[in-house]
Structure formats: C-alpha cells, structure tokens
C-alpha cells in the first residue's frame, strides 16, 4: 500500500481541493496521513467534513504552532504510515487522477522519486478556490489557452505521460528539481536515514537534505517529470530567513561526505 504524507499549514481551502483531487484517483490503494504543522481549528473542520464517505483512510497528525517545523511533523507521519511506500505531497497542490498510479509505476526498490509541479498563477488559483468541488475535467478544458495566457507554466506534461526507464536516473546528487511537495521513497529507506533532520527549522532545503542523505545511503534518485506533475496553487513566498543557513548546512554535509 502507498501512504500519502500530506503536509499542511493554515490553508484549509487549498487542502479541501487537494483532498478532493485525491478522492478521484484511479488507483485507490492508498491512505492519507495529514502532517499538520500547527493549523487552527478550520483545518481540522475541513478534514472532519470528509468523514466516512471519503474513499481512503485519513489520519490527522497535529503539532503546536511553534514556527516552521515541517521536518518534525513529517517524521511523525513516516512513523505512523502503514504503507511500505511513501509519497510526499503538500496541501497547496492538486493532483491529477492518475497521480497515485503514476507513482506506483515508478516505484522501484533502491530508488527514490522526485516529482515535478506545474505552477498556477494567482487568478487561476482564485478561480479554483471558488469552485464548489474539484474537477480535473473542468480544469483541463481550454488548457492550451491557460498556458498561452500565463495561467499555467507548463502544458505538454499534462498532455503527454512517459513511462519508467533508466533515462530518469540521476548519476549524482544535484539540487535541481527537488520539490518536497512531490517526492516518494520506500518507508524502510526513510527510516534507515532517520527521516528528516529535525534540527532544520524554518522554510528551505529540508527536502534537499533528505534526498542527499538517501542518495548517500545508496538510493538512486529518479525523475518523476512527465508523469507525476502536481498543480501548485499560487501563494505569497514563505519566510525564507532560514533558507541560507539550511542550504549552508546541506552543502557542509555534501562536502564532508566527499572528503
């Protein structure tokens, strides 16, 4: 079984769309563990509103809001996961109906997958948030027009899906295209490196650190582009005051392993 570890913080409207999109999956053999980094009661109410009618099991993990501590709540989610394969997703992302199926297709022992995203602009984001319910069919209507008008930054990855293959494999660690909002690995591999580094607080590069340590552990990174794209809702840039320090710490680890 696949466990989707869904990170969220105080954007219940976006989380509602994300959960609705997960409810439309063609592959239904998954559970959802919501890793909540201290949201208010509104988020809890959204989760509870799905109730027993939701097609997948949902578990809500919550920790007190003491600043950005995504690493800590994700480690709790890893520990709580019943699936042997973990797909990391953020609550400000909407998934395509074949999202789980595509991740399952790319899952391979000894590998991790870093997926990709399609950026939505502010006007399209506000439009989607106003919908009573998510519909991928409705979203896909006039897709080329959305691209030409700048509402989305990619078109072809939504139309063309490519299968597995060695061309997806990275030969070494690179920072490029690591997005914590869409990546996957085996639970045993995550546990072998003790999950995320909880000393990394504040926004930035905790996902790169996780991927680097998995690769150093002997896991091969595989690209999930042209297969697993998520739709990333527009929002203001997070507080990045810790990003430079977190990046420095990752580079320090890389240098230490190279010596």
Automatic annotation (TrEMBL):
Galactosyltransferase C-terminal domain residues: 173-226
Keyword DNA damage: no
CDD domains according to UniProt: GT2_Chondriotin_Pol_N
Keyword annotations from UniProtKB, A to Z: Transferase
Pfam families, per the entry: Glyco_transf_7C, Glycos_transf_2
Domain of life: Bacteria
Domain Glycosyltransferase 2-like: 3-151
Keyword Hydrolase on entry: no
Name recorded for this polypeptide: Glycosyl transferase
């Amino acid at each position: 079984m696949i466990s989707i570890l869904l990170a969220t913080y105080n954007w219940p409207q976006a989380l509602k769309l994300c959960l609705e999109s997960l409810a439309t999956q063609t592959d239904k053999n998954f559970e959802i563990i919501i890793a909540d980094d201290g949201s208010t009661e509104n988020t809890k109410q959204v989760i509870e509103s799905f109730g027993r009618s939701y097609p997948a099991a949902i578990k809500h993990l919550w920790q007190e809001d003491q600043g950005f501590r995504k690493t800590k709540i994700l480690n709790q989610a890893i520990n709580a996961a019943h699936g042997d394969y973990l797909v990391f997703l953020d609550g400000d992302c909407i998934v395509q109906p074949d999202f789980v199926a595509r991740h399952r297709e790319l899952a391979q022992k000894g590998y991790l997958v870093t997926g990709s995203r399609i950026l939505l602009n502010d006007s399209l984001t506000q439009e989607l948030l106003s919908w009573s319910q998510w519909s991928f069919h409705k979203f896909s209507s006039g897709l080329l027009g959305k691209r030409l008008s700048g509402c989305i930054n990619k078109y072809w990855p939504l139309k063309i899906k490519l299968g597995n293959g060695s061309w997806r494999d990275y030969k070494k660690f690179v920072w490029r295209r690591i997005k914590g909002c869409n990546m996957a690995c085996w639970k045993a591999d995550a546990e072998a490196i003790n999950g995320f580094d909880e000393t990394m607080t504040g926004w930035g590069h905790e996902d790169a650190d996780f991927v680097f340590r998995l690769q150093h552990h002997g896991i091969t990174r595989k690209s999930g582009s042209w297969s697993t794209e998520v739709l990333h809702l527009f929002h203001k840039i997070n507080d990045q005051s810790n990003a430079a320090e977190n990046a420095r710490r990752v580079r320090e680890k890389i240098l230490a392993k190279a010596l």
